[in-house]
Amino acid sequence: MNQDKLNQDIPEPAPLVEVTRGAITESRHRGHVVAVDGDGQMIAHLGAPETVSFLRSSSKPQQAIPLVASGAAARFSLDDAEVAIACGSHNGEPVHTETVRSMLRKIKLDESALRCGPHEPYSTKAADELRAQNSEPTALHNNCSGKHAGMLALALHLGAPVETYFEAASPVQIQIAHTVSLLSGVPVEDIAVGIDGCGVPTFGMTVRAMASMFVRLAAPLADWETETRDACRRIIAAMTEHPEMIEGEGELDTELMRRLKGRIVSKVGAEGVYAAAVLPSAEWPRGLGLAFKIEDGDKGSRARSPVVVETLRQLGVLSAADADALAQFSGATLRNRRGERVGEVRTSFELRHSS
Question: What element of type H or E holds 107?
Fold first, then answer.
């Protein structure tokens, strides 16, 4: 294939965020944004909606559905905070590690069963406390430890080997793949599969399919099995009632869900991915699904939060008062070493609404 054809196949991203310094736009973050309604119709977009990327941690709510739908969560008496942390990318705060420990106690395993690997808590305070105690981080501090504890519970419930719960051939991961297929509408064989940072399969699909996957979480179809529809409802309830388990104090997912009080489920993912489900309301009777991918991966996450706030504002999900309350996520001021303002990070897009 010649180079011209290869270049034609690269999706054209839209400018989303610009970084200014003085009179110059020094950098830009580009990407693809899609919003779909409960009928699967695209209502707004930017960039190329058919761009394919991995969901990464944005798929955690869907990955947790089999835990609930199978009866495993009920069998092991997992409460809503524990179901929520199975959907979250937590900061490794004490409330998070204790919740995962509680899950492991209920399934009669310890942290050695977790195969997500250790890393320092994302919470600066929690990381500082560990260092002050001369303690090393464990798998409990991994932001995916709740998801892995939920997968272990599902393995036990299914009678599958706990030693291989993370492998693609495990009954655990097979059930999860079929659930992701159901909610996204993408056949299992058409979903790209890679390995996530925590060692379990991650799923690749179009940004539009990601948005569809989230609107179906908010408004499951009537012809689905009752267990699946009930599981979607419990996942939504757990996440909205315990937003502190989804990320952590001062973080986008947690603070957005706190502000909108049961109106939205928000889930960040690595490499500039984001997805959200707006619950059914007068304006969106069958819910709304939102997803985007920031093309450069958004290391440092300076673009993602402003894109979330501005997209939800343009869609009418955030009121002016909501946007003001979430101003800490709307952009950033750049300052030099003397503390003087020298530039800013700001959004630079208008969604294209479908007719």
Answer: none
